[in-house]
Amino acid sequence: MEIKLFNKWSAENIKVDDPGLDNYISFKPSYVPRTGSRYAGNRFYKSKINIVERLLNKLMVPGHRGKKHFKTSYHATGKAENAYKIIREVFSKIERETKKNPIYVFVKALENGAPREEIITIEYGGARYPKAVDIAPQRRVDLVLRLMVQSSYQKSFNSKKSIVDALAQEIMDAYSFKQSSAIISKKKEMERQADSAR
User: 3-class DSSP state for residue 53?
Assistant: First the structure.
């Protein structure tokens, strides 16, 4: 018997086209994407849990942006039940609007939005200069998930748009590779900076 996410969507035939991310996006089947840090403490533990659960965890703790406490809505309470309901509604909305499996749309959005290069600052002889470096595959997934959730919270903060609408729109825009997607524009900006610092 096949286990479907939320008892609705199957991830059986979904494949990751980007060979760099293939080992770092997991579709381990579960009815409820919540392991409760079962793998915490193990090396590369994040890559072993379902990618939808990683989104759920990021919704609960979206993190900081620009070394400042970032704006979030009342949904970011650390309550798994709230994040679970948000993701279920987001996936239902994606399915209604795209007529496709929302897990497939979400994974393709991650692939499209994952940056390949970034810049680091090197200090040499008292002078600082930027240097372009390749991003590790696990960090690529971490970055795109963080940017996706933080930009969605920013769009829904103090506005009529709910976090469900904002996150669903962000995923669909990234899936379609639209410039209106925050993660696509951030990816292009990072890679442009890395290109000039090479």
Answer: helix
> pLDDT, tens digit, for every residue of 4-35?
888 888 888 888 988 889 889 988 877 777 88
Task: Please work out, in degrees rounded to the nearest 5, the angle formed at the alpha carbon of residue 150 by the alpha carbons of 171 and 118.
Answer: 85
Q: The tokens of 169 are what?
A: 């729109």
Residue with tokens 């072993």: 48
Task: Write the CATH number of the domain with boundaries 22-196.
Answer: 1.10.455.10
- Is the full-model pTM beyond 0.85? yes
Residue ranges of the domains in the chain?
22-196
Q: How many CB atoms lie within 10 A of CB 33?
A: 22
Measured CA distances, 28 to 24, 34, 118, 145, 184 (Å): 12, 11, 30, 18, 27
The C-alpha atoms of residue 38 and residue 52 are separated, in whole angstroms, by 16
